[in-house]
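Ex. 9. Protein: Phosphoribosyltransferase.
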Amino acid sequence: MTALPLTDRRAAGRALAERLQPHAADDPLVLALPRGGVPVAYEIAVALKAELDVALVRKIGAPGNPELALGAVIDTEPPLWVANEALIARLATPDAWFDEQLDEQLAELRRRRRVYCAERPAPSPAGRTVILVDDGIATGATVRAVLLGLAESSAQRVILAVPVAPREVAEQLRGEVDELVCLVTPEPFGGVGQHYLDFDQLEDSEVCALLAAARQITDG
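Predicted structure tokens for Phosphoribosyltransferase:
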């Protein structure tokens, strides 16, 4: 059983990798939600000798509280997004606010694609086992946006791997993937960061370095 608090993202990734080891033979594609999911996913990809890439998605925050997710958007063509309609109604969020935030987050996604991936094409999930990784889940809106995209990708199997999530949200997501691997589901939950000793924000340069290091390992 995993003890809380978790040390840091990479330690959490190593713990998840132990649980995911049976999938090493499947030649999985590991997709990380940047920025925080990348160190977790890096350890999984190294342990499983798997290809690592990023799933570019951004949260759409509430007015005055950007950490409260009204929805999320994934950088596909055309863009796909999910919205928490109940929360939007409860907060009486204007439609114009959501639309403006959607445009802003799409612009940020495109910037990150240029920074993280340069001209390297994204690997296709079609016919593959995909392991989707983040450093934790709070509402699940961000993960659901990526799952929406993967549902259109013809992936053979989708595994969601996260260190920590609220029990109720984890159980809901379990029904949306082929397999859920979650180390701990503490209650009460609070925020993802409070369950780590080290939860420093990552810079783009750190994300790029980890992606490059993973490519060197898997490319031999």
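Check your answer against this statement. The chain has seven helices and eight strands.
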